[in-house]
């Protein structure tokens, strides 16, 4: 089963409609991280963004290649 990951600026207190969504955690982390840095001036580490994903998914994000941590 493919898990869809969704990081939304509104979920983290921004008045912004940006959403990074997909099944590949490293790509979602890259997209959301670039957006928050360029648009909101906040630089999140990959580890912090992974924690965001783990909290939202109950610690189960897989992308078909094992743990999503394997590709960070």
Word description of this protein:
The chain has two helices and two strands. With 72 residues, the protein is an alpha+beta fold. It has one domain. The protein is globular, with a radius of gyration of 12 Å. 17% of the residues are buried.
Write the layout of secondary structure elements.
Blueprint: E1 5-8, E2 19-22, H1 25-40, H2 46-57
Antiparallel strand pairs: 1-2
Strand content: 5-15%
Structural class: alpha+beta
Number of strands: 2
Mean pLDDT over all positions = 85
Q: Figure out the total of helices.
A: 2
Order of adjacent strands in the largest pleated sheet: 1-2
Helix and strand element order: EEHH
Structural shape: globular
Separation of termini?
22 Å
Percent of residues in helices comes to: 25-40%
- Overall tally of structural domains: 1
Low-confidence stretches: 63-72
Global Rg: 12 Å
Largest sheet: 2 strands, antiparallel
In short:
It contains two helices and two strands; from the N terminus they run ββαα. The chain is an alpha+beta fold. The chain has one domain.
